[in-house]
Design goal:
4-stranded mixed β-sheet; single chain; about 240 residues; alpha+beta; about 45% helix; globular
């Protein structure tokens, strides 16, 4: 399946600790990752891959270059992530390009996007029209993708940290942001994050990140009562 959408978010809190280990813990083996600071001309990828057909980029180096251009194109874009299937392999690679002083909140959010293959496998069955819109880069697709990244980041952060500090800070950050059109998908995710917070009070989360994502998709994301974005089909 092609994964063409690229994602970004403004971050506010400087990542002062734990960032070096966070990606590996967060992803838990689901995907490999490359996290690149914008304009770091000396960066050498940990792994250089060719990507499966259908992606917007053909290789690790191509993705880093292309995503760097996206981040550079807007001063308000602090980080952008995309995930790719490696050619002739079951491996996946998530590439994140960020400006200096990336926040912990932004890092968690971008890592949430690395789990998109799980979302897409569900949409292929439950909502193929939405999946087609995402692959066609429809403007409304951000509502589905950003809300997904938010609840994944909230769930994985809770699982790793043992508290809901990320969810609380994330809601505060989004609520205090502007009401610009760019921020609307994030504003729309606040009810999901609040419901996730309640859900986690009594949830028995499975051990693996993949199983956790599958659980919250079923219990939260695909509940139209909470995810208003899922009512925007064909818009």
């Amino acid at each position: 399946m092609s994964i063409r959408k690229t994602f970004s978010l403004l971050g506010l809190v400087i990542c002062l600790y734990g960032c070096s280990d966070r990606p590996e813990e967060f992803l838990g083996g689901f995907s490999e990752y490359e996290i690149v600071e914008l304009h770091d001309n000396n960066y050498t990828p940990k792994n250089s891959y060719s990507y499966a057909l259908g992606h917007s980029y053909s290789s690790t180096e191509d993705a880093i270059e292309g995503i760097s251009k996206i981040v550079s194109s807007s001063d308000s874009t602090k980080a952008t992530a995309n995930v790719f299937h490696v050619a002739n392999s079951n491996k996946k690679q998530c590439v994140i390009v960020h400006r200096e002083n990336m926040s912990q909140l932004t890092l968690n959010h971008e890592l949430g996007h690395c789990f998109h293959p799980i979302l897409f496998s569900h949409l292929e069955i439950k909502a193929p029209t939405i999946l087609k819109g995402i692959e066609d880069d429809k403007k409304w697709s951000d509502y589905y993708l950003e809300s997904f990244a938010e609840i994944v980041a909230g769930t994985r952060s809770f699982s790793l940290d043992g508290d809901k500090s990320y969810i609380i800070k994330r809601i505060q950050e989004i609520e205090s942001s502007s009401d610009s059109e760019k921020m609307l998908p994030y504003k729309r995710s606040i009810p999901l994050l609040k419901h996730l917070s309640d859900f986690l009070d009594s949830a028995d989360l499975p051990a693996s990140p993949e199983e956790q994502v599958n659980l919250i998709l079923e219990k939260i994301y695909f509940e139209p009562k909470f995810n208003k974005a899922l009512q925007r089909v064909n818009r």
